[in-house]
Amino acid sequence: MKKPEIKVIRRFACSVLTILLTGVLTMAHAQTPSAVPNRPTAIAIHGGSGTINKGDLSASKEREIRKTLEHAVRAGHAILTSGGSSVEAVTTAITLLENSPHFNAGKGAVFNAEGKNEMDASIMEGAGLNAGSVAAVHNVRNPILLAEKVMTDSIHVMLMGQGAEQFARQQGISFEDDEYFWTEYRWQQFEKARAAGDGDTSYLSETPDQWFSTVGTVALDSQGNLAAGTSTGGMTNKRWGRVGDSPIIGAGTYADNRSCAVSATGHGEYFIRATVARDICARVQYRETSLALAADQVIGGQLAEMGGDGGIIAVDPEGNVVLTFNTPGMYRASIDAEGNVYVAIYNDE
């Protein structure tokens, strides 16, 4: 065989090999989670639960709250549909709720017994069971972003007080002056609770509608990863450095790809004692209970029997969304795996 013919054959063989390799790589890429068609995504948010009766809110305030809930859930969902992570969706939605004066987190945080805004937050991702939380921090604009930094940029899970604030400054987290967090509505709550003279039970009358105000988000992304986050200003007129369930992994927040992601809202002491978020996930994982039934068993069963009020939002790896509470209402919104948008306040919606 002449040399020119050999060169032609070699070129042809190389071309065929290149085509085959390209096809193999393309098929391999098609099998990666990000490219699998119809993989579900879902998201749910809450803004607190409690005795929220129709007529307690003015028409204009109710519209503003519903608008904020829908804006936050759509913003988080947009992250998911664009291929973003569940953690990013969670922080995006919670940041928007923290920036609103209508919810007890971030800008809308309540006042403690010293007249200060003292905030808690936590976040957890279900792929590696990594988590971060902060407690009793002051002047942090978005505590959920600080909790995320604890998860991603430290070897710890939970930081509190001045140490957490020092870490926040090292990480470039935004701070605000006291004036940013001051609202007339929250101050009046504080004055009313202080006049009652009992910091242990002031939460019972912190607002005319007696709602346990916390914000949270759970999400499932297109990679099949779950995440949950919760943020709060805690209890009005709280004393002695009181910390509730919101920054406690397993109580107010939990996420595990093998079961579900949960964010809680309610009377924190009961949620801590019952390890509500983890209990729901454990029932799903080990008993193979449906997410809806597990939530009902814990919130409508064990928690209620203990005397605890509140609710949870949750999502499982199949994109099933649950919004369960044992109070007359819960500020909530969700976008399920089919893209259906739901925004509600009262228990009959």
What does this structure look like?
This protein is of the alpha+beta class and about 350 residues long. The chain folds into two domains: about 5-30; about 40-345, 4-Layer Sandwich (Glutamine Phosphoribosylpyrophosphate, subunit 1, domain 1). Helix content is about 40%, strand content about 20%. It is built from ten helices and 13 strands. The chain has helices at about 5-30, 60-80, 85-100, 145-155, 160-170, 180, 185-195, 270-275, 275-285, 290-305, and strands at about 40-50, 120-125, 130-135, 160, 210, 215-220, 225-230, 255, 260-265, 310-315, 320-325, 330-335, 340-345. The strands form two sheets. Strands 1, 2, 3, 4, 5, 6, 7, 12 and 13 form a nine-stranded mixed sheet that branches. It has a four-stranded antiparallel sheet with strand order 8-9-10-11. Strand 2 (about 120-125) and strand 3 form a beta hairpin. Helix 2 packs antiparallel against helix 3, helix 3 runs antiparallel to helix 4 (about 145-155) and helix 9 crosses helix 10. The radius of gyration is 23 Å and the shape is globular. The protein starts with a helix and ends with a strand. Mean pLDDT is about 90; it is low at about 1-10, about 10-35 and about 200-210.
